Every structure is written in C-alpha cells, then in structure tokens.
Amino acid sequence: MHHFFTDESHIGDKYITITGNDVNHIKNVLRMKQGEELLISNGVDKDYYCKIEDISEDEVKAEILNIDEDGSELDAEFYLFQCLPKGDKMELIIQKAVELGVKEIIPVSSKRAIVKLDDKKAVSKVKRWNSISESAAKQSKRIIIPSVKEPMSFKEAVKYSECLDMSIIPYEHYRDMKETRQVIDKIQPGMKVGIFIGPEGGFDESEVLMAVEAGIERVSLGRRILRTETAGMTILSVLMFKMER
Question: Does 3.90.950.10 match the CATH number of domain 77-243?
Fold first, then answer.
C-alpha cells in the first residue's frame, strides 16, 4: 500500500486531501485510480487507511476507511548525532536510520571529519537529506518524517543533547560490555536518547572527554571496528529491538 503524508489542516471527519508534489506522483507516476487504497499519515500521531474518491489536477481526495492511533513509532525517541562522513554515505545513514525508527538526525562537524560544509553547501545538503528522510519514512510506514537538522559543531551538538534524558557515545577504545549492557538497560519507554557516532577516523580523545564531562555515557559495540555507516545502524538496531512493543 502506497504511503503519503499530509498536513492536519487537510484532514476532515470523512475525507483527506493531498496536495503538492504527491498529486503528480499519485496521478502520473503511480497511475493510481479512483477506488484504490492508500495510507496517509498526519506526521504526528495517526495513520489513516483511505480509498481514493477523486483525482484532479491540484489535489487527491481520499475517503477515510479506518484510523490507526497505535502506528509504527517506537516507545522512545532516538536522536542520531552523526559526524559527517565522506561521499554519499550520509544519504545511506539517513535512509537506514529512518527505517530503524530514529526521531531526528543531527549532522556533526568533528575534529577528524574530512568533510567540511560551507553555508551554501549545507543548505543544499540538508534539503537533499530531508527529502531522503521523507522517502524512507514513506517506505517504512512511519507516522512522522524525521527531520535532519543543520550541521553543528561537536561542542554545539553536546550542548543540544542536554535537553535529552540521556545520551550515549560508542567509542572504539572502550571495551566494557558489562557496563555497556547496564547503560543500555537504563533506556526505557518514554525517554529521549541521543546517540553520538564518529566519522571515519573516529572521535578525537578530547571530544570523548568533553562528552563524558557533559554526562554522555560511553558504550562499546564489541571487539570489532565498525565503519561509521555501520555503527549507527548497529546501535539503533539494538535499541529498536529493545523498544518494540
């Protein structure tokens, strides 16, 4: 079933309207017809199972068949602080993080990150990254579209994480799996949790020290060294399994 998002203002008691680029996608790309069913999310807390009533040039009108308020979201919110990787790896990371249930993705410029974005490039990249997030949210039947924020410095990211209930930082030189399990066990439904993932060269020791001094807890992902695009998926997979109802 094809999945779309619409604003609350377009949702009525019996019908929902879809406008914008999705109209062209429904009409000319998917070639959907009157009577076909689709899933529409309000981007907040509800899924609507609908049937197409009418397709015009500017909007798609869909009849509401059923409302699901349980949805597919996890019982905790995860914020991925991803240090900027090389090439197109960030696109893959965003896609998979959204599939795994992340709430928000914060690109981070760290000491060992090779990629440096100026303001002009950052605007273009963030727009592209949010488009990837939306596509992944549709594919994975998320109720929300996780946002990708403007890039931050590591110091700014640590400061930003202070509003969360707790944060963790996987670090390749930390090998205490017993302590790691205890840290993971602290994460409970309803919590907001930050996850800091380093770039290809890993975190600088001064960054780890800054994080620990701010109350961010070190964890281990095992005895093997994981690539930056693997590390975030690994810890998010563990947390997704833990938080699934």
Answer: no
